[in-house]
Amino acid sequence: MNSITLNLYKKHKGFSLLELIVVVLIVSLIGFLVFSSAVKQQQKTEVLDPSTLPSTFRKSFKGQGDVELFCIKKCSECYVVQGANISPYDGGINFGKDVKIHLLDKDNHFIELDELGRIKDEKICLRYHLYANGSTTQMLIVNHQGIYYLPSYFGEAKKVADMEEAKELWIKEEYPLRDSGSFY
Fold first, then answer.
1. Number of domains making up the chain
2. What is the pTM assigned to this prediction?
3. Tens digits of per-residue pLDDT, 95-153?
4. Which residues of 6-31 are buried (b: 16+ CB within 10 A; e: fewer)?
5. Which segments cross the bilayer (predicted)?
6. What is the pLDDT of residues 14-51, one digit of tens each?
7. Same domain, yes or no, for 96 and 174?
């Protein structure tokens, strides 16, 4: 080889420092954009409110066995119980003011639950259970925004006009399941 060819070969042997810096910056930018959108998707938590409680809870804890949600401090602070672990609910909470829980008794009359238990001397205002089979606690949530019927068997919460409509939905769900021995 002559000296001119050897000098050209040496000059173009690798990338310059500037080219390497540009490539590293471009790869870093692409990585940042991809990973930041993935983190945002992962951190995107849904707000729990009476109308989204069953669907959000099922979606968040599907296949994780029995999971219970309980809320204290007038339903402004909620916790999730899985086995022996209790952890704060990390999503938003919007159950509204003056949350009252009602159940239908054996005579088909709604009764308001005054006490759902206490934890650390705080009154529990809401206790909601997701069972391993996907069914949930059946209840009526009444707050300043309205009346919400939460079915027990895989249905979605429904805002109702009054307690009578809620009673009809409750009874309608209860009787077909009572007659069916093949549900479980």
1. 2
2. 0.69
3. 888 899 999 888 889 999 888 888 878 899 999 999 888 888 899 999 988 999 999 87
4. eeeeeeeeeeeeeeeeeeeeeeeeee
5. 15-35
6. 778 888 899 999 999 888 888 776 665 554 557 888 98
7. yes
User: Would you list the DSSP string of the chain?
Assistant: --HHHHHHHHHTSS--HHHHHHHHHHHHHHHHHHHHHHHHHHH--PPB-TTTHHHHHHHHHTTS--EEEEEETTTTEEEEEETTEEEE--S-B---SS-EEEEE-TTS-EEEES---EETTEE--EEEEE-TTS-B--EEEEETTEEEEE-SSS---EEESSHHHHHHHHHHHHHHHHH-TT--
Quote the tokens at residue 51. Answer: 């109308």
> Is 184 part of a structural domain of the chain?
no
Has residue 48 been placed in a domain? no
The two structure tokens encoding residue 98: 């003056």
**Sequence-separated (6 or more) residues with CB below 8 Å from residue 130:** 57, 58, 61, 66, 67, 68, 69, 136
User: Are the beta carbons of 93 and 126 closer than 8 angstroms?
Assistant: no
Residue 132 and residue 158 share a domain: yes
Residue indicated by tokens 């309205």: 146
Same domain, 10 and 61: no
Q: Which domain holds residue 32?
A: 3-43
The residue type at 154: F
Which pair of tokens denotes residue 156? 């979605």
